[in-house]
Specification:
With 98 residues, the chain is an alpha+beta fold. Helix content is 24%, strand content 39%. The longest helix has 15 residues, at 23-37.
């Protein structure tokens, strides 16, 4: 099964798209946002997330504006289905319709 996920946000006449993140971008999001957005006991180790991305069971997305992360999430897939994991909006933009 192949999943193609396309997410677009249209606000104030401008569209923004969630983009698949590379390893360096995932590390940055993890260290700058995820460690603040999720309790330590709920956050998988970075090495585990990167391994899942590497083996294709997880894809990581972020919505950026001028390199600043506005929101992010990951989608993990196995034989039983899909899991939207680690969905969060940058604290500065919460409550603003993102």
């Amino acid at each position: 099964m192949t999943l193609i996920l396309y997410c677009v946000i249209i606000k104030n006449g401008r569209d923004k798209m969630f983009e698949i993140q590379n390893t360096q971008q995932i590390v940055s999001v993890y260290n700058e946002y995820m460690v603040l957005d999720f309790p330590k006991d709920e956050l998988k180790p970075l090495a585990h997330i990167l391994a899942m991305v590497e083996d294709g069971t997880c894809t990581f997305y972020a919505l950026r504006q001028n390199e600043e992360v506005l929101s992010y999430f990951s989608v993990c897939q196995n034989s039983e289905g899909l899991l939207v994991d680690y969905l969060a909006v940058n604290e500065k933009y919460r409550g603003q319709g993102i």
